[in-house]
Specification:
- The protein is an alpha/beta fold and 370 residues long.
- Helix 11 links the parallel strand 11 and strand 12.
- Bound molecules: adenosine-5'-diphosphate (ADP) and magnesium ion (MG).
- Adenosine-5'-diphosphate binds next to helix 1.
Length: 370
């Protein structure tokens, strides 16, 4: 566990961090989020003593970090920064093995472990002999994560590690990061200015305001449902009611069974179903898209498929179900099982009662808790 106790950092007269008290529990992801200049990087760098607090202390598993040998302290802490911060003149493999080699691991063992890590963060081991400039931004970030993990530190500090890549790559990196963390269970302090990233990744989220003041520390669902003040409410943003639904596991709702067609189905087959929109599925029964029956002249072809609708998974959240319904051209949200097979549809009007029921259950729970 990392514990900040009344930590303050001043630069001249200006407060970068103001009496921060906060615990980052072992094995969990704690996200620090807030606008630019609110003291996130300063907070992170006080943990590995790249910055010294003006007052207060930081305990790591109960030990004051100021009392530890700096080299020993940093050995237990992986550090990942924006744009990866890789050594430009070293290969990917050398980047990942640098720290273990410095710690005395022999070359063969360090390289074997590095290759394993390179695969684990989702990179092709064939990239190991390349230089950072020969990689995409997303690949460089993965190398940065592999390098931070190489010494197997219990604590990871991550400073906007996914901010410099495009949105699609960012989402992949976030998903892989969560998968990796579910296996590794590191104690992570993760900094971002992006509230969506904070809500997606954090077991708990600390919202900071400029001047380095902690505004709220709560799990994401609580942050969305119950911002403590106008600053947090505004920072968390509009749509927060809708976004909170992503934390609401969908109850078992009755799905409507739908007849389906495959590519190549004839216009007669489609019209015989008597429905304005028909679901077209692929070889493995995966949903391919809706087809407007009236638009089929001879047979169902790929160009006739409407792909705008999202697909909800049976084990997904209420948000997924509602989004599938709202985005579907037929008004019927597509639901697939965990293998991706089409299992039926649901309408927004059928999801809403589950949302209402959830609100009532939460209110009842709060009433008994009092
Ligand atoms: P964030 O990472 O949230 O954007 P920082 O921790 O980098 O914020 O900075 C917090 C505040 O401290 C900012 O106002 C910044 O200008 C100031 N600051 C950071 N480093 C220094 C420094 N070395 N000297 C003076 N002021 C600094
Ligand atoms: Mg910063």
């Amino acid at each position: 566990m990392i514990r900040f106790e009344g930590v303050t950092k001043r630069y001249g007269g200006a407060l970068a961090v103001d009496h921060l008290t906060l615990e980052a529990p072992t094995g969990k992801i704690t996200v620090l989020v807030g606008p630019s200049g609110c003291g996130k990087t300063t907070t992170l760098r006080m943990v590995n003593r790249m910055i010294t607090p003006t007052s207060g202390r930081i305990l790591i598993d109960g030990r004051d970090n100021a009392s530890l040998d700096v080299a020993e302290l940093r050995r237990g802490i992986g550090y990942v920064i924006q744009a990866a911060g890789l050594f430009p003149h070293r290969t990917v493999l050398d980047n990942v093995t640098t720290v273990p080699r410095l710690l005395g691991t022999d070359k063969k063992a360090a390289q074997a472990r590095a290759l394993e890590l390179i695969e684990r963060v989702g990179l092709d081991p064939a990239l190991a002999s390349r230089y950072p400039a020969q990689l995409s931004g997303g690949q460089q970030q993965r190398v940065g994560v592999a390098r931070a993990l190489a010494a197997d530190p219990p604590v990871m500090l991550m400073d906007e590690p996914f901010s410099a890549v495009d949105p699609v790559t960012r989402e992949q990196l976030q998903n892989e990061f969560l998968r990796l963390q579910s296996e590794l269970g590191k104690t992570i302090l993760f900094v971002t200015h992006d509230i969506d990233e904070a809500i997606k990744l954090g077991d708990q989220v600390a919202v900071l305001r400029v001047g380095g003041v902690l505004a709220q520390l709560d799990p994401p669902a609580k942050l969305l449902a119950d911002p403590v003040d106008d600053f947090v409410a505004e920072f968390v943003g509009r749509d927060r009611g809708y976004r909170a639904l992503s934390f609401a596991a969908a109850p078992e709702l009755p799905l409507t069974q739908e007849p389906t067609v495959r590519l190549g189905a004839s216009a007669e087959q489609v019209r015989a179903l008597g429905m304005p929109w028909v679901m077209c599925v692929g070889e493995a029964d995966e949903p391919l898209g809706w087809v407007r029956a009236a638009a089929v002249e001879s047979e169902v072809t790929r160009t006739l498929l409407h792909r705008g609708g999202t697909v909800a998974s049976l084990s997904g959240s209420l948000r997924e179900l509602l989004d599938a319904a709202l985005s579907s051209p037929s008004g019927r949200g597509v639901v697939a099982d965990d293998e991706g097979r089409f299992v039926g549809t649901i309408r927004a009007s059928e999801v809403l009662p589950a949302i209402e029921a959830r609100r009532e259950a939460a209110a009842a729970e709060e009433a008994t808790a009092r």
